[in-house]
Design a protein that fits this description.
Length: about 230
């Protein structure tokens, strides 16, 4: 079985080399780019399983890279972990709105980063144990095994995290899912302040569900529920 591929887009040489060293040691096939445009080019040529993307870069910054990546059907499904500095709270939220799957704050633990990468890659794996193989209601159709969702006959693109989130909500239809439970189940982790991450992904998911957005109900002060 070939190694999973990671593309690192980071302008700071020492950080880039540190990432390459630790990720290669963890068994990944790693390619690296020193700027955003080269990162976009490598995304097409290298076809990574996941991308680590620094937000603050000269020229084409991380937000623009993410915008172009998610706007191109050829690269839209590549999961993205943003690498951010502590003070970039606004940029984190914008990045999540653009379709990034997660963020890691510098300085970070290489071990934690590897765990976060593996957690996101697992979201492309087997469906939830309680999920049906195929789910349909009115114009919404979800093929859990194929990781495919169609809306009134037209396929829509979800990120790995959005698909996992929808899977958890649909599998537990009628039951309230707290933000903490969603963090544990979807993100495989629990970090202080991540409730905003949950809310951001739910908002993006609703936008993509269009006329069926109301099927994801907000339970004020608790979390979310998919209509039974």
């Amino acid at each position: 079985m070939s190694a999973q591929k990671i593309l690192v887009v980071e302008d700071h040489r020492d950080t880039r080399e540190l990432l390459k060293y630790n990720l290669t040691a963890a068994g990944f096939d790693v390619a690296a780019a020193e700027d955003g445009q080269l990162g976009l080019n490598l995304a097409h040529a290298f076809k990574p399983d996941i991308m680590l993307l620094d937000l603050m870069m000269p020229g084409t910054d991380g937000l623009e890279v993410c915008r172009q990546l998610k706007g191109d059907p050829a690269t839209a499904r590549i999961p993205v972990i943003m690498l951010t500095a502590k003070g970039e709270e606004v940029d984190k939220i914008v990045g999540l709105e653009l379709g990034a799957d997660d963020y890691v704050v510098k300085p970070f633990s290489p071990r934690e980063l590897v765990l976060r990468i593996k957690a996101i890659l697992r979201r492309y794996g087997a469906p939830e144990p309680n999920a049906p193989k195929l789910w349909e209601r009115e114009g919404l159709r979800i093929d859990f095994e194929a990781h495919q969702i169609t809306l009134d006959g037209e396929e829509i693109a979800l990120t790995a995290t959005e698909f996992k989130l929808l899977t958890v909500l649909v599998s537990g239809a009628g039951k309230v899912q707290t933000r903490d439970n969603l963090l544990d189940t979807v993100w495989d982790t629990h970090f202080e302040g991540y409730s905003r991450t949950v809310d951001t992904h739910v908002r993006r998911l609703r936008q993509k569900l269009g006329p069926y957005a109301s099927w994801i109900e907000t339970i004020r002060g608790v979390g979310y529920r998919f209509k039974a």
